[in-house]
Amino acid sequence: MCVGFWVGVFLMTLNPFTELFTFDVSFVNGLLLGSLASATSYALCMMISDGGIQFEYRKKRGVDTEVDASPRNQLLQG
Questions:
Q1: Whole-number Å distance between alpha carbons of 47 and 53
Q2: 27 Cβ partners below 8 Å, 6+ apart?
Q3: DSSP single-letter state for residue 14
Q4: H helices within 14-58, ranges in order?
Q5: Is the entire prediction scored with pTM above 0.70?
Q6: Can you give the pLDDT at residue 59?
Q7: What is the pLDDT of residue 72?
Q8: Of 7, 53, 46, which is closest to residue 30 (Cα–Cα)?
Q9: How far apart are CA 61 and CA 78, in angstroms?
């Protein structure tokens, strides 16, 4: 996320030299762009990992009310 923040700040400093995006160069815009870039990199890291796109399927199941907790008569001996 730190790298994402600094990428956003770097893009802000490139603003006067390009026509790709237009905004004022100020401290507040640097903070906002850095935060936006950090959030974007975090979201992408959560969606894409080393194994590819993350996909999780959860199946709703009923709660199992039966518990196997019978007492035992054996003592631990060491």
A1: 6
A2: none
A3: T
A4: 27-47
A5: no
A6: 67
A7: 62
A8: 7
A9: 42
pLDDT at 38: 92
Residue holding tokens 């709660």? 63
Cβ burial of 62 (10 Å; 0-12, 13-18, 19+) is exposed
- Which pairing describes strands 48-49 and 52-53: parallel, antiparallel, or unpaired? antiparallel
pLDDT below 70 — which residues of the chain? Answer: 56-78
Structure tokens at 63: 């709660």
pLDDT score of 64: 59
Six-digit token pair at 4?
Answer: 């994402």
Would you state the pLDDT for residue 39?
92
Contact 37, 7 (CB under 8 A): yes
Q: Which residue, chain included where needed, has tokens 């796109």?
A: 53
